């Protein structure tokens, strides 16, 4: 592991505490990101090929923004599997239920914001999520651009998480309303029910 290996154990412990299955071993091969793979809703990790432990948080974030009942249907291609699971439950098109429609529209951004909130909650370095090369950004000065957008309250994942009731509205998204929940990065729930 190239970035912040000390953050792996707290991250794995947190993911298990909120109900995710995390397994070490060869099942991590062939995933979307090196050293992490999803199979039947379980997160597989290989510390030797994992670039940064924050990648686990990001992949878990894709699962966390969906209702738990859909997790077992998720595998390596989280985007395609999410779309298939939601379509099987709600039919074709955009579902009326925001807990299904918002992740379809903003899943990547919501997973980014979720992983940031989780890292803050755990007290692990944000650089375990935002490292050179993460989110296709290789060169930058100061904090990673994604981190800056989150901290400025302009990252679209903040609004998505608030719309599905996982956190309160904050930043520019506070103009959209008030759901009565503490504002991001405080999370009222880590996984959709």
Description:
This protein is mainly α. The protein has one domain (5-173). Helix content is 39%, strand content 6%. It has helices at 8-17, 54-64, 78-90, 98-122, 145-152, 156-163, and strands at residues 22-24, 36-39, 42-45. The model has no long low-confidence stretch (mean pLDDT 93).
Given the helix and strand composition, which structural class is it?
A: mainly alpha
Give the H and E element order. HEEEHHHHH
Query: How many individual helices?
Result: 6
Largest sheet: 3 strands, mixed
> In what order do the strands lie side by side in the largest sheet?
1-3-2
N- and C-termini, Cα separation: 33 Å
Q: What is the helix content?
A: 25-40%
What quaternary form is this?
single chain
Q: What would you call the shape?
A: globular
What is the number of domains?
1
Q: Care to count the β-strands?
A: 3
The low-confidence parts are: none
Q: What's the average pLDDT? A: 93
Concise summary:
This protein has 193 residues and is mainly alpha-helical.
List the helices and strands and how they pair.
Layout: H1 8-17, E1 22-24, E2 36-39, E3 42-45, H2 54-64, H3 78-90, H4 98-122, H5 145-152, H6 156-163
Parallel strand pairs: 1-3
Antiparallel strand pairs: 2-3
What would the keywords be for this entry?
single chain; 193 residues; 39% helix
């Amino acid at each position: 592991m190239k970035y912040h290996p000390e953050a792996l154990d707290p991250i794995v412990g947190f993911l298990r505490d909120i109900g995710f299955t995390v397994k070490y071993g060869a099942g991590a091969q062939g995933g979307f990101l090196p050293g992490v793979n999803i199979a039947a809703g379980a997160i597989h990790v290989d510390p030797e090929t994992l670039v940064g432990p924050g990648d686990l948080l990001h992949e878990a974030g894709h699962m966390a923004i969906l209702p738990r009942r859909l997790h077992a249907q998720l595998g390596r291609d989280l985007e395609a599997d999410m779309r298939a699971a939601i379509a099987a439950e709600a039919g074709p098109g955009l579902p009326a239920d925001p807990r299904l429609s918002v992740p379809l529209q903003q899943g990547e951004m919501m997973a980014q914001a979720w992983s940031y909130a989780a890292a803050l909650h755990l007290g692990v370095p944000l650089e375990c999520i935002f490292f050179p090369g993460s989110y296709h950004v290789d060169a930058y000065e100061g904090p990673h651009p994604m981190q800056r957008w989150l901290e400025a309250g302009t990252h679209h994942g903040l609004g998505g998480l608030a719309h599905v009731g996982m956190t309160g509205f904050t930043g520019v998204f506070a103009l959209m309303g008030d759901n009565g929940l503490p504002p991001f990065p405080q999370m009222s729930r880590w996984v959709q029910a």
